[in-house]
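thread: overnight batch results

M.L. [08:02]
morning all. the overnight job finished for the chain we discussed friday. pasting input first so we're all looking at the same thing
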Amino acid sequence: MSARTDERRQGRRGERSVRSLHRRARYTRWFRWHLVAALAVFFASAFAAYALVGTIPVEQLEALIEEAQGGIPGDSPLPELAFVPLLLNNLRALLFIGLGAVTGGLLSLFGLVVNGALVGAVVSFAVRQTSWAVVLAALLPHGVLELSAFFMAASVGLRIPHRILRYLLGWDETPLSRVELFELAVLSVLLAAMIAVAAWIEVNVTLDVVEWVAGEGALDPVNA
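M.L. [08:03]
and the structure it wrote out:
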């Protein structure tokens, strides 16, 4: 009986501890100037890639894409998508960006540059092949959640090195408080859930939204 009583007491203590941490949590502290910096890096890279790709003739871009696909022309600007591979790929990208936490923010910045450039380049090419309505319909349903998760992960990846630096300089007593570690655990689960929902939307909803906005056949190649 005493062992069971101890287990119950420990369980109640743990529950009270979690509740106490949740009451003291301030999740917005992770998304201040670090989030602003992440947004600035991403959109600067996106606009630069958009402008650069815009200077390349569409014919050359099509040839490059066809060569990259092994000479097999695609039937649509959107690739064939499957939920699990897409989810795993996006979770890897999320983890890569979040690893800025242990690389002084460098991987977060690199991930933002790469993803920003990729989005800018794809939009620059796709908008000349279809229209802005189609491009936005293809990106916004899942992109709002997916990119928000990436920005939040980058903000975390930038803030942790900042907090560690403050600790090393003697400005803070600990690198991360217990409450901050709790916040980090909650945010990690939230970001993974956002990526999962975004992947599901991309696989199951995106095409329907595009066809609703632009009509059936909107994603057929222009020169078909």
